[in-house]
Amino acid sequence: MKSRRNPKTLLALLALAAMVAAAAGYLVTRADGSAGVSAAGTSAGASAAGTPSGTAATSGTASAAAAASTSVGQPLEGLEPAPGTAVATEEELPADAHASPVLTYLDWSADTRSAEAAGYVSGVVEDGGSCTLVLSRDGVSVTAELSGTADASTTVCGGFQVPAAELSPGTWTGVLQYSSATAGGTSAALSLEVPTS
User: Fold this and answer.
1) How far is CA 133 from CA 49, 117, 127, in A?
2) In this structure, are 53 and 137 located in the same domain?
3) Are 113 and 189 within one domain?
């Protein structure tokens, strides 16, 4: 004898099966949604974290560029030469580095009864410098002074005359000295014989 199932029992089983299927679908959907939210949150967090970092990097680059721009071309202050280091300045240059006087003529003139001399200065061409003839003997010095005159390539110092009244008989040594606002120097020496009267 075949048994017959109660229709209510079948309906109850179907309803239970539907509930189980619905619950399973909900769990799967919840799991996928959480993963998506987590992934999106991670991406958003990474983006948010990257934004300040990128901004800070850009700001740091700009600051470095601004610092470099400010420092380029600026004088370095506070740099002093080491103690004992010689620093040449224009004022300290020796005068003979600019001018070289040459005494070309020094002799006694019987006609004028005087010592006569002439010379020039190489390395400088100018008017108004001081040309000085210095005659020395036994600790005594006699000088005569003229103004230098510019010519084509030198400064001329000529026409010196020192009368016999200022010179004792004997051997004298003469040099030509030159000085101006821009140059100066002293020539090599020449000898002069002053005769007795």
Assistant:
1) 90, 8, 17
2) no
3) yes
Contact 116, 109 (CB under 8 A): yes
Count how many domains the chain has: 2
For the whole model, what pTM was predicted?
0.52
Domain assignment of residue 1, yes or no: no
Q: What is the pLDDT of residues 141-178, one digit of tens each?
A: 999 999 999 999 999 998 999 999 999 999 999 999 99
Q: Are residues 114 and 168 in the same domain?
A: yes
Spell out the residues 6+ positions from residue 109 whose beta carbon is closer than 8 angstroms to its own: 115, 116, 161
Report if residue 121 sits inside a domain. Answer: yes
Q: What residues in the chain have per-residue pLDDT under 50?
A: 1-3, 28, 31, 34-78, 87-97
